[in-house]
Amino acid sequence: MLTKKIILLSIALVFSFSYSAQILITDADLDVASPLDCAANAGPIANFFDTGNSGSNYGNNEDEDITVCPDYSNGSNKLGVTFGTNTGLVFGVHASDTFFVYDGPNTTFPLLGAHNSDTDPTGFTHQATFAANPTGCLTFACKSDGTRDSTGWEANISCLTLFQPFTAHMIGQMAGTGPDVISPSDTGYIDICLGDSILFSGFGNFPYDSIVAGHGYPQDSSSITYEWNVSDGTTSTNDSLWFIAPARNGYLIELKITDSFGQIQSIISKVRVSTVPNFSTLLISPENVCHGDSSTILGGVTSTDTSGVTATSSSFQLGGTVAGQVYLPDGNGVNHDDIIGISGFPSGQLVTAASDIELFSLNIEHSFLGDLELMLTCPSGVQVNIFNSFSGGTGELFPGGFGGGSTFLGDAYDDNIGVPGEGIDYSWSTSNATFGTMATEHANGNTIPVTGGGTIPSPGNAMNPNGVYLPETSFASFIGCPLNGDWKITVRDNIGADDGF
């Protein structure tokens, strides 16, 4: 029988905020040859201004642009920009004028967005893309017409240290077979007999290693760790794993590879152990024979046969699913969606009770709970509000919000230098909750002190992780949802500047 246990998610984000003293759009380009000094200042301050600087409007009939590139002296490899009235920054570009952001070192590169106060009344954020923009530069342009101007902008340009993508791979080898018996590769099946042994080996592919790409950070086989988890409880931290199936079942073989920045990539393959067929339904005529006599045996293996060999069934021992760490864009009304594919349950099996979703967990640190909303969506599209801490804005995932303010999640840093604090597991369940909703517990002051790594004069408090919270919407809303399929987590960060992992 398959136990209906589902979903353990891990979310990650990393920003490195650093600033030059002041940049005007009319300044000379801070290009690859003379990039932005990422270590000049720290803090969510305005450092990028229109032609009027901080005291005047921009003018009519302007056509200005500037390119800004990050330096790599502190490991920063991409540029980001925040324009947002809900961050204390200024964004006022008249509806007849346009501000453009390009993903590269000049205006011939892909357009990330065209903005003004009509299209984006509360501002916007952009980050240089990873694979398509190896320079990490952004180019900004503003064009105004001859009739109206506006206050312009006091924005924040940041150097970002983003996780470098890599892929995890595994191979399975058996005596007398080819080099890899997993079919299809990495995430497929291996069919064996009871007693057979398999040598699983793991490795990573690192296309953005600093030696290969010329920037970023070192990321190769010498800077990673391995974690193997088999659904029978077998574990290993070596780069390989010998596995001998203890019973005639199906087994999930999970490999997690972690790089030096804590980024995780996870893959799962499957092992199926052959079962013993049942011969009891064969017809023998006559059944009793003596030495030298002959007998007729009638049998078959198809569903239309009246007698024959019956296949016996087994099952996979399913646990939860742990997602790898993913980059989560910072604030100002940005949604991040991550898809967690669930498989292995019988086809068509549905959620029949709230208790079928045993636990939903995040490992997270974030320095401002009041930014955040969290939603879980099942494969059929039903959405559940895990918590809504943001209040007083527009365009939220859910209306209202309990106003979690400067309370932390986890042991977070709050000086925006892109150095990770300590992530802590937070969990939600309708049937196994030991706390109320996060809104209730926040109102009751259910917090713990945090240190912030010693970087914050007043570290503050974090929501207490030593219990299981109720989601704001019951998991009973998922009744009728398929267990198999794409489960989607959506995190909405509604305010810029505060960061986390």
- Main beta-sheet annotation: 6 strands, mixed
**What share of residues are in beta strands?**
25-35%
Structural class: mainly beta
Average pLDDT value?
A: 81
- Overall, the morphology is elongated
The first-to-last residue Cα distance is 37 Å
Count of DSSP strands: 29
| Tally of alpha and pi helices | 2
Q: What is the CA-atom radius of gyration, in angstroms?
A: 28 Å
Q: Which percent range fits the helix content?
A: under 10%
Low-confidence regions: 1-20, 454-458
Account of the 3D structure:
- This protein is mainly beta and 501 residues long.
- Helices cover 2% and strands 31% of the residues.
- It is built from two helices and 29 strands.
- The N terminus is likely disordered.
Précis, in short:
This protein is mostly beta strands. The protein has helices spanning 210-213, 438-443, and strands at 23-24, 48-49, 63-68, 78-84, 90-92, 98-102, 111-115, 123-127, 138-143, 152-160, 167-173, 189-192, 197-205, 225-230, 235-236, 240-244, 250-258, 264-273, 283-285, 296-298, 334-342, 360-364, 372-377, 383-388, 424-428, 447-449, 461-463, 468-469, 485-493.
Task: Describe the structure using short key phrases.
single chain; mainly beta; six-stranded mixed sheet; 2 helices; 2% helix; elongated; disordered N terminus
